[in-house]
Amino acid sequence: MIKKGLLKGHAQVFNVMLRVIDLAAVFVCGMVAYYFSAAYSTYTATGVHGVPPHYLKVILLAVVIVALLFPLFNIYRVWRGTSTLSEIKYLTMSWVMVGLLLATLAFATKSGADFSRSWMGLWFVSAWVSLITFRVVLRMALNWLRSSGFNHRHIVIVGTGEQAAVVAERLRHSTWFGLEISALYGSDTEKLPDWLKGKKLINDVAELRRYVDKGDVDQVWISLPHSEEKIIRKVLLALDGVEAGIRYVPDIFEYQLMHHSLSEIAGVPVVNISYSAIDGMNEIIKNCEDYILSAVLLIMASPLMLVLAVGVKMSSPGPVLYRQRRVGWNGKKFTMYKFRTMPIETEKESGPIWASSVDNRATRFGSFLRKTSLDELPQLFNVLQGKMSLIGPRPERPHFVEKYKNEVPHYNKKHLVKAGLTGWAQVHGWRGNTCLHTRIEHDLYYIENWSLWLDIKIIFMTIFRGLVHKNAY
């Protein structure tokens, strides 16, 4: 049986093991790539296990570069609390840097012609895939262990007010981080949820120091509002020199800044209240992504779209496409395309209706299109037109925009970017007749934290769990 905290006492061993596996993956992929590329070549050479000496030297050089470069990119930092997407991003950057260094050396020594291009390409791709696959699998295993109650870190939360309660709830529902609250420092427990009231309560700084010094506490999280500055200073002074890590949770709750991103400008931390990361070069990258992928997807989906068009035509009289005015980027209206799912006169009779599971206006075939999200496919034409993006907040009708922009905080900020076919909110289940406040929170997170990696993640999440969903109607 695995004991709680099994990995805690072997962090250094785990770190060394990770480094060795990375180096082994680079070496083995280089060797195997040569065997595969040589199988399609008439060239034969002698060397270590059939690999020519100059190939072997480059492979070993890459191993040395990885050993020196990866730590500089924080590849072996503590994983707890960091995302898989962030790990993949830094790992890719590091491996690309290794490739660029090797290419520069080959150019400088005029030795590039001595190596097979197929070998170089196969080695580069296979090693990258191996490094990422190993980490993803390992993270999944660690997350499962932590969710099952193993490999936990024990923390003390300084604070018992509303802010501390929110932090505690977040940690409680993020079991894969493996952070377990063992005690609280404070006196007023009125605002704490019932499950927290059973935790050890400390109300004296001397007792807090003794409790932390016992060695069972890994981290202390100070979660107090700015108005409690004296208590914060008192706690920091009392905990000076303890072995446990100390973290401060900024007072971002009072101003509803919980879901806004943080940046550092000239060494000054700032909260991005109304900000889009899709700007400048990022906007160019995203536009290229939209045009290329939408064109490819249209070509791939054209046979299916033809079949669906016939199905729509047979289900009820009227046009195949349904055109509807929506609000997009900068609040501008545009015509959005969908496969028609209702009889042509239906909406003229009912007027605009918010999507719900009890909407029985759709035809039988139209209901199928809605449940599988296939009715959205024509919006690929909107993406090619530049009116929409593949990924972004879903566009809404002018009637509902006018209704909700004054009812839902920050609703209009979703129009800082182009509307999308799918989005961060949709892949998390916030679609259809679900909480609009939470949906907007997810939209704002995407807008402020956009990256190419995040788009790739959303695309894969859409494929595996976003197309057919209980809230798709």
UniProtKB/TrEMBL annotation:
Pfam families cross-referenced by the UniProt entry: Bac_transf (PF02397), CoA_binding_3 (PF13727)
Keywords: Membrane, Transferase, Transmembrane, Transmembrane helix
One annotated Gene Ontology cellular component of this protein: membrane
InterPro entries: Bact_transf, EPS_sugar_tfrase, NAD(P)-bd_dom_sf, Undecaprenyl-P_gluc_Ptfrase
Record domain Bacterial sugar transferase: where: 286-465
Location of this chain's protein in the cell: Membrane
Coiled-coil ranges per UniProt: none
Membrane topology qualifier: Multi-pass membrane protein
GO molecular function, one term: phosphotransferase activity, for other substituted phosphate groups
TM ranges: 20-43, 55-76, 88-108, 120-138, 291-312
NCBIfam families reported in the protein's UniProt record: EPS_sugtrans, WcaJ_sugtrans
Protein's name according to its UniProt entry: Bacterial sugar transferase domain-containing protein
Taxonomic lineage: unclassified sequences, metagenomes, ecological metagenomes
